[in-house]
Amino acid sequence: MNKRSSWALPYFIFLLLFVALPLVLIIIYAFQDGSGHFTFSNITKFFTDGDALGTFALSIEVAIENTLLCFAIGYPAAYILADNKLNRSAVTVVLFILPMWINALMRTLATAELFNMAGIPLGKGTLLFGMCYDYLPFMIYPIYNVLKKMDKSYAEAAQDLGATPSQVFLKVTLPLSMPGVWSGVLMVFMPTVSTFAISEFLTNNKIKLFGTIIQENINNSMWNYGAALSLFMLLIIGVTTLLQGDDHAEQASGGII
Amino acid sequence: MKGKKIIANAYIWLLLIVLYAPILFIVVFSFTEAKSLGNWTGFSLDLYKNLFTGSMQNSSGLISAVKNTLLIALVASAVATLLGTIAAIGIYNLKGRKKQTMTFLNNIPIINPDIITGVSLFLLFVFLGISQGYLTVVLAHITFCTPYVVLNVMPKLQQMNPNIYEAALDLGATPSQALRKVLVPALRPGMISGFIMSFTMSLDDFAVTFFTRGTIGLDTLSTYIYTDARKGGLTPELKPLMSIIFLIILVVLLVINIRQSKNTAKQ
């Protein structure tokens, strides 16, 4: 059976070539000028570029707001869907996931068109609404999964020991469902912070997010600056993943104890 | 309890109505011939007729975009399933640090947002001097699909009793027979769900395709819609196309789900 470990080799080479090397290239290009010489100018350009900095801050703000909004709307939905007394049909769950199979750009365009028809001007409000609409299933599904698998006897025990329904929820159900919440947060935050196209459609190009700036630079052959901007995006991802990882472990062990 | 149930149901249905509003909007307006969304000029099946007879402006563009989308998704998910299954068997048999490294590398494309995957692969192809087109798009799709195949096959390996494979060898099966008759059947459910996940992700991808398709005018459905919308004014025939896709997915998912709940009911 041991020889079989060599079966991982082709994929290892594939991962090195198509995953590791490209990420290293982002770093290399970020520290080079157009003619391949080492430079910090792309990095300093970002910090002196008010436009880029503003967009960077706005993207994080929108991503946080969207994640909170998805959580506030999605958690009750996941709770209801996972409760056998409140929801008996598995089809309802499928109905929540189904829109993800429709092309996201097409859905977003239709959303924008609905806003136009209703006479609502496109701007930050419509951007948040549209993003929440696009990413809500990603929040609901992991929370639903955790709640569905959760051992109901914990909540029952708390109830038997005299906890009020709100205490049962706050001290038992919610903490136990945190792993699902964290994967939902990650699945909503990451795509929102890096989105492009969707934000353009939802605001009629009025609001630019960070993803759009990266795309514009790459498309205009400013690869080095585009790579530097991507590097900052990679940093956010790294930080978020680390934060999530820590909390995740803490929550999981806290849940067991 | 009853009041609670009514409120809960009302909440769920309200959310579903909001979620489906834009999709229903597309479906409704696919039955009129107006050029732009939200403009009703009476019931008509003209857009459907145009779609199927190919008699529309820029029809070749839309039709080849649909063909490209399906072809790329099919090739990428087939290769990803093969590569991912072999890799999963290998990773399952690795130990210690090597296993950790592989798991870590495998997780990167899952965590990375599309735009980072897209930009980094774009830089790779520029760096290697590979001209971008079908090949680079397919390679890029394989890159973000394979990790999901590995994740789907791995639990099947863990559930499998390793002695069964050894037993087949002891009973005189050649390694390739043991592979075909023991290993593959045990892993098949994971391979199938990995393939389906890869296929749907490849179909829906926009950002990665956008950065790796090069300048030869290669379009998938997503990039076609993007370019179309940027030019102002979607091809009206996209409405019936999306409605048909929606209907197919709705039927397939409902059939799968009703079957599953029947099966669990039987057990």
- Judged by helices, strands and strand pairing, the structural class of chain A is mainly alpha
Over the alpha carbons, how many angstroms does the gyration radius of chain B reach? 23 Å
**Secondary structure tally: strands of chain A:** 0
Strand tally of chain B, please?
Answer: 0
> What is the total domain count of chain A?
1
Tell me the name of the CATH class of chain A. Mainly Alpha
- The chain-level structural class of chain B is mainly alpha
**What percent strand of chain A?**
under 5%
CATH homology superfamily of chain A: MetI-like
Assembly state (oligomeric) = heterodimer
CATH architecture of chain A: Orthogonal Bundle
Q: Main attributes?
A:
heterodimer; A: 257 residues; mainly alpha; MetI-like fold; 0% strand; globular; disordered C terminus; B: 267 residues; 11 helices
Write up this protein.
The complex is a heterodimer of chains A (257) and B (267). Chain A has 257 residues and is mainly alpha-helical. Chain A has one domain: MetI-like fold. In chain A, 77% of the residues lie in helices and 0% in strands. Chain A has helices spanning 9-30, 41-48, 50-82, 90-97, 104-117, 124-149, 152-160, 165-176, 178-194, 198-203, 210-219, 223-256. The radius of gyration of chain A is 22 Å and the shape is globular. Residues 246-257 of chain A have low confidence and may be disordered. With 267 residues, chain B is mainly α. Chain B has a domain at 57-236: MetI-like (MetI-like fold). In chain B, 80% of the residues lie in helices and 0% in strands. Chain B has 11 helices and no strands. Chain B has helices spanning 2-29, 46-53, 59-93, 96-111, 114-128, 134-159, 162-170, 175-204, 207-212, 221-231, 238-266. The longest helix of chain B has 35 residues, at 59-93. Chain B is globular. The two termini of chain B are 30 Å apart. The model of chain B has no long low-confidence stretch (mean pLDDT 86). At the A-B interface, helix 1, helix 3, helix 4, helix 5 and helix 9 of A face helix 1, helix 3, helix 4, helix 5 and helix 6 of B.
